Amino acid sequence: MLKIRSLYAILALSAAPLVAAEELSETGEFIDGVVAIVNEGVVLRSQLVDETKLILKRAQDQGFQLPPPDILQEQILERLIVTEIQLQRADQIGLVVSDQMLNEAIENMARASGIPFEQMPAALAADGVDYTDFRRGLRDEITLEQLRRIMVTQNINVSDREIQACLTDLEDNAVVNSRWNLSHILINLPNDATASQIEETRAAVESIYQSIVDGADFGEMAVRHSQSDTSLRGGSLGWIEGQQIPSFFIEVLTDMQAGDVSEPFRTSSSFHIVKVNELQSALQKSEVDQFRARHILITPNEIIDDETAKQQLEDALEKIKAGEDFAELAKLLSDGPTAPVGGDLGWAEAGTYVPEFEQVVSGMEIGDISEPFRSPFGWHIVELLERRVYDNTEDLKRMNCDARIRNSKMEDETQLWMRRLRDEAFVDKRI
Question: Which terminal Cβ of the chain has fewer Cβ within 10 Å, N or C?
Answer without folding.
Answer: N
